[in-house]
Write the structure tokens for this entry.
Amino acid sequence: QVQLVESGGGLVQPGGSLRLACAASGFNISTYAMRWYRQAPGKERLLVAQISSGGGYIYYPDSVKGRFTISRDNDKNTVSLQMNGLKPEDTAVYYCNAWFTDQYWGQGTQVTVSS
């Protein structure tokens, strides 16, 4: 059974940090581009980080560039998102995504940035 399971979300104060993890099972992520998306209430789902299968290409939108860092461990079949300098506008459900010839989604983890 193919699964992506996110963890590491929670409540953090502005300026704080969180590290999200995504564990894949039922398939090998080594051939997949891995992405993190987020979706705030009432808004569309947006890409916040992408890493190529080999890790040589990484993309961030301007909204998170310099604050978020995506990484992957193909041996452990995991991908992570380190989030620093968190802002209230980063509050959203964060989803892990695997994309190649097919696409898989996790169920999401809530990140809330509030004082």
About this structure: The mean pLDDT is 97. The first strand starts at residue 3 and ends at 7. The CA atoms of residues 47 and 88 lie 17 Å apart. The chain is about 0% helix and 50% strand.
